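Predict the 3D structure for this chain.
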Amino acid sequence: MQLITCPWCGPREELEFHHGGQAHVAYPPTPSELTDEQWAHYVFFRDNPKGPRAERWNHSAGCRRWFNALRDTVTYRFLAVYPVGAARPDVTEARS
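Done. Predicted structure below.
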């Protein structure tokens, strides 16, 4: 069982959390002006890197708050967790 560190509750078992997709995806400034193809690209297409990836997570069985995490997609190891709205940490400095 892997532990994920909630920024508010501390380390908890991974079963308490739900993945929410890629973090830091900016909402289109004028969505009504997007074509169907552009809208579909915004909704469905996400980065899928090998290595560190910024993701949104929800502590659904705890405080129910959303937070961001940097997770290595190769090892599944969480490199850093941080509140929504905070800047993405440098993974060379952040380890948790």
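The longest strand covers residues 52-58.
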